[in-house]
Amino acid sequence: MITVYGYSPSGNCHKLRVLLTQLKRPFTWIEIDSAHGATRTAEYLAKNPNGKVPMIDVDGRIMTESNAILYWLAEGTPYFQGDSWERAQTMAWMFFEQYSHEPYVAVARFICGWTPLDSPRRADLPKLRERGYQALGVMEKHLAQNAWFSGKNYGIADIALYAYTHCADDGGFDLSRFPSLVQWLARVRATPDFVDMPRYADENIALIAQSK
Amino acid sequence: MITVYGYSPSGNCHKLRVLLTQLKRPFTWIEIDSAHGATRTAEYLAKNPNGKVPMIDVDGRIMTESNAILYWLAEGTPYFQGDSWERAQTMAWMFFEQYSHEPYVAVARFICGWTPLDSPRRADLPKLRERGYQALGVMEKHLAQNAWFSGKNYGIADIALYAYTHCADDGGFDLSRFPSLVQWLARVRATPDFVDMPRYADENIALIAQSK
Predict the structure, then answer these.
(1) How far apart are CA A160 and CA B94, in angstroms?
(2) Which residue in B173, B22, B157, B165 sits closest to B95, CA to CA?
(3) What is the CATH number of domain A2-74?
(4) Helix, strand, or coil here: B5?
(5) What class is the B84-189 domain?
(6) B76 contact residues in A (CB cutoff 8 A)
(7) Do B99 and A99 touch (CB under 8 A)?
(8) ipTM surpassing 0.95
(9) Fewest Cβ atoms closer than 10 Å to its Cβ: which of A20, A131, A205, B14?
(10) Interchain pair B91, A75: CB under 8 A
(11) Closest by Cβ to A63, choosing from B50, B92, B102
(12) B27/chain A closest Cα distance in angstroms
């Protein structure tokens, strides 16, 4: 049995909800409010010393890192296909997501929706947006010639990159600059059994609106 | 035939030199001075729009992202072993390396050795060191009970984490606080055909010394 410890508005956590649903694998979701310190309790840190979500518990064994969990879930399924070169290219996009995309696109969104309007972190937004736009530009270039990030078919690199790209607007990114990317987002949403991110709390929706 | 485009003092690039040497796979190394803009030329960006090293060219096909390249090289070899859970745990450590370790431990080292003594980026060092020490602490906790990061044996997660941990001192980290980690570094160095990072340029060695 798989238990996911996750914060629903987190793109990293939502990746697991998408793949588990598409794989039709039953799971229990335990909501962990990482924005309010729930990953920093002694109980949580005993399971995951790195203090982050998501984390899964599979019959008492713990795994962390959203993209490693996607890899574990997808091995041997249609969501991780191709020869060894193609599978490694899928992994390359997942490392790109964690290194060159998430620290900018996701963090800008977090600052806009999850920090007070007078937070000193808001001074970081211009730099985060510059780097985030670079990452979105790299995606656009790929999508101008390819339908997916996971080889010939939709798969785990698409799930990983969709996670924070689909809500990049929350962080002040204008996705209309990237037409191929906008079409890809729609293709991802149209895959069988795709599931949307749950609605955020009113507080976060209000902060995002006030940040624009 | 494998051609590596890499900057020798880069830990991310050195990962490939280590694994290719240990696998006894012939390769050509093309030195790319990423610290002086060589990844931002039109020619380089045409091959890798993300403008980073390392990159490999295998018979005209390009792959980027150091840890994805390690995965591609290691599949089916003793450097990526175990059942699907263990292999995914190896991947989890590689994602940890890129998300929670490299952006702090490697970036602190870069600032100390590759930016002028009056660089405004040096103001970031205290925060980078705080986060870097957190990552080293997570590694120490694992190593207190496990010999390796790649399942039961030495493998690609060890190569990935060694890359910037072994030279963390360059960035002002005191590794003597982490006894299990120091022993693990020695175990990595003692693996068959292990190869050290080449000596840095005098300029960088001098900057590191003056940063202490």
Answers:
(1) 16
(2) B157
(3) 3.40.30.10
(4) strand
(5) mainly alpha
(6) 84
(7) yes
(8) yes
(9) A205
(10) no
(11) B92
(12) 17
Reported as a single tens digit per residue, the pLDDT across B43-95 is 999 999 999 999 999 999 999 999 999 999 999 999 999 999 999 999 999 99
Residues A170-180, mean pLDDT to the nearest whole number:
98
Partner residue facing A84 (CB), from B52, B75, B85: B75
Residues of chain B with CATH 1.20.1050.10: 84-189
With 0-12 / 13-18 / 19 or more C-beta atoms within 10 angstroms meaning exposed / middle / buried, residue B161 is buried
> Tokens representing A62?
């713990």
Task: In whole angstroms, give the CA distance from residue B48 to residue B62.
Answer: 8
- pTM exceeding 0.90: yes
Give the span between the Cα atoms of B24 and B79, in whole angstroms: 13
Q: Residue A7: helix, strand or coil by DSSP?
A: coil
Question: Would you call B88 and A63 a contact, using CB atoms and an 8 Å cutoff?
Answer: yes
Interchain CB contacts (distance < 8 Å): A and B: 100
The continuous run of DSSP H or E covering B165 comes out as: helix B156-165
Query: What residue ranges of chain A are covered by domains with CATH 3.40.30.10?
Result: 2-74
Place of tokens 């803009």: B37
